[in-house]
């Protein structure tokens, strides 16, 4: 298949445009593994890339899409051979390296992890970068020494991709999960994933005090800005918050009070350049710690062309759970 379908973003005089088109394999970038892509997903970053609302794309033309699952078609890398099932998350694909919204990709073999035996290629992208990031956040809280015995865990942006998976994982591990969302109609959905309490986003979105009443021992935040500042101010002594998103903004209007008066820790989660050994650990944990029935319940399938329509909706907070993209 020399010519295949791909979503391509082109630079224009007044910005950029994205469309589904034919792409020639000879124009793929350098790499030692060529993968026939089967499934991808839509993350918040993908929405930013396609709409151009943030400078995610660093070269043009660009095939967006930050993660994929598929089958190795050709390889000169010692770890991979034709027929191997693989996953790729991050490493700049869809930003500086041609990405996942195409029927083929050529990447470095060092960027790939094996598809876990009990996870299908479709399920891997139902998890996607959002779910993998949620797992990294859980692992970071555990490395900090936190367990369900220390108290509740807050999840912000709970009805989104990262939030939905985070709620499901934390609940399965025995945490009392407090889910924060701006979509009150999603309360039943979040409770079905394992949330014990639902709080309105507005409780955390207005400027608050440097220190507020202690409410939770741990948290996973995908919102940032004032929401994260308030979450930190309400974290219990020696607690920790894992920060992994910026849906509410890149700023952080907080003070040092939570850190020096309560010993609260802010744990940064970088899923893009995460070391390979930690990636493998995260996917192994996802195999055991994510309820597959709950994953199915939070997942909606779309086609490759539909990504262009969905991208603005995910930025507007109109997408619940996870979107899986059938590529080929």
Characteristic terms for this protein:
2 domains; 328 residues; alpha/beta; 15 strands; 10 helices; globular
The whole-angstrom Rg is 20 Å
Which percent bin holds the helix content? 25-40%
- CATH fold description of the largest domain: Quinone Oxidoreductase, Chain A, domain 1
Instruction: Report the major sheet.
Output: 7 strands, mixed
Mean pLDDT: 96
- Helical segment tally? 10
> What is the CATH superfamily of the largest domain?
Medium-chain alcohol dehydrogenases, catalytic domain
Please name the CATH architecture of the largest domain: Alpha-Beta Complex
Strands, total number: 15
Poorly predicted regions are none
Q: How much β-strand is present in the residues?
A: 25-35%
Number of domains: 2
CATH class of the largest domain: Alpha Beta
Concise summary:
With 328 residues, the chain is an alpha/beta fold. It is built from 10 helices and 15 strands.
